[in-house]
Structures are given as structure tokens and as C-alpha cells.
Specification:
The protein is of the alpha+beta class. Helix content is 18%, strand content 32%.
Length: 256
């Protein structure tokens, strides 16, 4: 079994009062130490948060880079268990017509650059290889999300190394299940949405307000395969403090 989590950790500018990152850190660390996921796809990781993750997650390697021209700003970082997962290759690319120019964007996009962190991993326990793409699509432009998603799917399709390995696509799509963006996924029948029906994933620290389902995990199988054994949202809250403004989604995967 492989336990994978997608976790928008919320950009930290100390803007969330009692739910600012400094107050959420103990709960986040306790939950990760309890659940012991093999892989965590983080979104909205600012540089000081990345340093904290690297400092406290002793059993993991944490990789990623910021989306700005100076490689600062938010990351879509991947943490993976040192004793379970072997990194074969890793690449960061920008969601744009010029994916290897830092901070590049689509014209239809907001002012925020967007990146995808792609990694090819070996499951040391099962001796099998899989590809993981962690992404955070644009928060304003529908067309920018369509273009970004199309680019990520094309990138996975054109992989040269272990091309037939299973693909996991995870992250914050910033789109509801009935959004135009998912017409792209419907044209890719190999990709299965294992988070279908998960319900609310974004609550904004105010669950009584209108909530959204915008976080997803897809799997594409060809030669070898992975399937979802179980799925859950991390809904912990202690003394009014949440893990994040999103519910992290945890999937238990098994090889088939």
C-alpha cells in the first residue's frame, strides 16, 4: 500500500488570525506523524514554510522551488518517505507557453505564475515505478486552468523514461467538478478521478459559508497499475484551529 496526500497548506502571510500558520504548525505535524503518509503533495508552500517542513519532517525528503523568477514565492512541493520511495528524476515546469522560463504565464492567467512539480519515483517495497505530478491551477482564469491542465496531461503523455508507468495527478485545481476544465479530463478516459464524490475540500476556515470541491487526485494506468483502496479527508480541528483552509485528502493506493 502507498498512502498519498494532497494538502494545500495555505500561503502564510500571518493573515488568518487564530488560523495563521504559526498556530496550525503543531496540529499539522501531529497529523502527519500519526498518519505517516508515503507521499505528500503540498500547495501554497512559501519559502519559510518549506524550510519548516524540511526541518520537522525527519523521515522525508522535501523538494520543490518557488514560482517567481528568483525561485521564491509559493511552491508545489512534494515530500516523500526516505525509506520507502526512491527518486529517479524530478522536474519543475511553469504552466505557460514557455514552461522552462521561470515566472512565465499564459496571457489568460492572473498575475500569479503557476508551476507543476513532476517526479518519477520507485516504490522500494514493491519494486515498481510511478509518475507523480503535483499542480496548483490558476485561481482566476478558466481558460488559464484549461491550458495548464492540457499542458500537464501532454507532459505526462510525452514522457520518455518509463512512459507506461502509472501516473498520479494531484493538487488544487481551483475548479468545481462541473467546471469547463474537466472537459479536458473527460477526453482522457484513462484518467480515473479517485476523489469523485469526496464533497467539500475547501472551507476557508468558515464551514458555514459556501464551500467548494476543488482538490483532486487522478490515476492513469497502463502496463502496471494503482487503484484506490480507501479515501478520507483530514478534518481535524483543535480549539478552533484547522489544519488548513482546505481539507487534505488522503488516498490509500495498492498495486494491481
Amino acid at each position: 500500500m502507498l498512502k498519498l496526500v494532497t494538502f494545500n497548506i495555505r500561503c502564510d502571510f500571518n493573515q488568518d488570525k487564530g488560523n495563521s500558520f504559526q498556530y496550525r504548525k503543531p496540529l499539522i505535524l501531529k497529523k502527519i506523524q500519526k498518519e505517516k503518509p508515503d507521499l505528500i503533495c503540498f500547495q501554497e508552500v512559501l519559502p519559510h514554510v518549506a524550510l519548516w517542513l524540511k526541518d520537522v519532517l525527519d523521515d522525508y525528503y522535501v523538494m520543490g522551488c518557488g514560482r517567481s523568477e528568483t525561485l521564491e514565492d509559493e511552491q508545489v512541493a512534494i515530500a516523500y518517505k526516505k525509506n520507502r520511495i526512491n527518486l529517479i528524476s524530478m522536474e519543475t515546469f511553469w504552466l505557460s507557453p514557455k514552461p522552462f522560463i521561470p515566472a512565465s504565464r499564459y496571457e489568460e492567467q492572473s498575475t500569479c505564475p503557476r508551476v507543476c512539480t513532476e517526479a518519477l519515483f520507485e516504490d522500494l517495497e514493491e519494486k515498481k515505478v510511478f509518475r507523480l505530478l503535483n499542480l496548483h491551477l490558476d485561481h482566476q482564469g478558466v481558460q488559464a486552468r484549461v491550458l495548464g491542465l492540457r499542458q500537464v496531461l501532454k507532459k505526462a503523455e510525452e514522457a520518455r523514461l518509463f512512459r507506461e508507468a502509472p501516473v498520479i495527478l494531484a493538487g488544487d485545481f481551483n475548479a468545481e467538478p462541473d467546471g469547463q476544465e474537466f472537459l479536458e479530463m473527460k477526453q482522457q478516459p484513462e484518467y480515473v478521478n479517485i476523489t469523485e464524490g469526496i464533497g467539500v475540500t475547501y472551507h476557508g476556515f468558515e464551514p458555514e459559508d459556501e464551500s467548494e470541491c476543488i482538490d483532486y487526485i487522478y490515476i492513469r494506468n497502463r502496463k502496471d497499475g494503482l487503484r484506490c483502496r480507501s479515501l478520507e479527508k483530514w478534518e481535524e480541528r483543535e480549539d478552533g484551529v484547522w489544519l488548513s483552509d482546505h481539507y487534505p485528502i488522503s488516498a490509500l493506493l495498492e498495486w494491481i
